Amino acid sequence: MYKDLLAENDDLNNEEDGRSKKSSYYESWMKTAFDKAQEALSKGEVPVGCVIVYNDEIIASGRNTVNETKNATRHAEINALDALFEYCNIKHLSYEDLLKDCSLYVTVEPCIMCIEALGNLKLGKLIFGCSNDRFGGCGSVVDRHLEYRYMEIVKDIQKEKAIELLKRFYKGENPNAPTCKKKTN
Ligand SMILES: [Zn+2]
């Protein structure tokens, strides 16, 4: 029991400082998702990046390309799924078999469209950074996860970093956004 309490406290502490072994593990994969998000930002896209991990290896990745393609469905997760389908084609693997053992890391909570796609494809595990208060499908707007209970979900992994990137995008994109003008007197 004391051990359980310790473990519980440990979990709580870890949740707070994000330094548990598990968090570090998630963060190591999330790093590449952030690289993709950064790439999106540099191309004038909403900075969201995503990687799909199978057997401790990144087998697919994607970033937002909505503006570039003028296609509102080209979210990071959808692009990563397309990359995964290609990977499966080349390797002659079934994506249905593969996805249940895959972890998908994305810097922002998947929207309703993406969580439906991931749920229907029976993704095994989803790890995301910050919440998506406008379109989130994992609890923020609706909770489609209730429908897809087999999918394990971990949230708030480096959420501050994800929020910071989004802020940079929205500040930069909107010419009417307030600049840091200092009053001279
Ligand atoms: Zn989406």
UniProtKB/TrEMBL annotation:
Transmembrane segments: none annotated. GO terms for cellular component: cytoplasm; nucleus. GO terms for biological process: tRNA wobble adenosine to inosine editing. CDD domains: nucleoside_deaminase. One of its GO terms (molecular function) is zinc ion binding. The gene is adat2. Residues 24-140 form the CMP/dCMP-type deaminase domain. PANTHER family: CYTOSINE DEAMINASE FAMILY MEMBER, TRNA-SPECIFIC ADENOSINE DEAMINASE 2. Keywords: Hydrolase, Metal-binding, Zinc. This is tRNA-specific adenosine deaminase 2.
